[in-house]
Amino acid sequence: MSNWYDTPLYYDIIFDEDSQKEAAFLETLNAQHGADPTAKILRILEPACGSGRLIAALAQRGHHISGFDLNSHMLDYAHQRLQKQNLSAPLWQDRLEDFTLPTTTPPFDLAHCLVSTFKYILDDLGPTSHLHHVANALRPGGLYILGFHLTDYSDQKPQHERWVAEREGIHVICNTHTWPADRSTRQEKLRNRLRITRDGQTTHQETHWQFRTYDLPQVKALLKSAPQFELVTCHDFNYNATAPLKLNHTTFDLVLVLRKKPNPNLIPTPSNSPPFPDSIV
């Protein structure tokens, strides 16, 4: 059985549906909170760009896009997608924790990493290192839009999600199973099963992996470790930029809108700079 990241077409069929909605969401957030709200063409970085669905969607809108991913199959698919659409974008293979930008890369206006990809960083130091690298890649006032699911450690029931999608006669059913999180290790086990029907033949794929887990206090601790950023607002996975999210114990789908502080020499200490503004908590 193949790893679903090694067969980008099927992964893309499942997740491409919301690409234009997500692209519009990112544009609106920049207009609301970015360093240059009037800018029509943005420089955008996508860590863990996967199959390139958002790379292409944003490039179609005229933005200058760069991205990286750890999986070479995903990058090959992303390159092919851009070529078919007569689009171009610098893409390279790299890790979330310690990525390196190509030389002479100007600062970005916005970076984004949605759909919980950030949770692949399993160790204690990697998440903070990732935020520091993203901050270094952004211009002062630039935004980092970071989305991931939060964990309810008291919920010991397995979770299940199911998606069904079709493209050009290829039918894909995606089932993802998540086991209860282990609070002591801050990890949860996941399994994905794909059922692919193509040219009258049905095949199956199964992938296992682990995510790092976060509850709300752990998110607050994470943001304290990256004082280059201020938290501007939050949203959920509906990607409605006009509906900010009020965080509480029932919040589990979280999109953070982080803004790089204009002058890093004036960053307040964590003790007098709460990571969550009063308007958000």
Automatic annotation (TrEMBL):
GO MF, one annotated term: polyprenyldihydroxybenzoate methyltransferase activity
Protein species of origin: Phragmitibacter flavus
SUPFAM superfamilies membership: S-adenosyl-L-methionine-dependent methyltransferases (SSF53335)
Listed name of the protein: Class I SAM-dependent methyltransferase
Keyword Repeat: no
Keywords annotated in UniProt: Methyltransferase, Transferase
Biological processes, Gene Ontology terms: methylation
PANTHER family: JUVENILE HORMONE ACID O-METHYLTRANSFERASE, METHYLTRANSFERASE
Record has Transport as a keyword: no
Domain Methyltransferase residue range list: 44-142
InterPro entries reported for this sequence: Methyltransf_25 (IPR041698), SAM-dependent_MTases_sf (IPR029063)
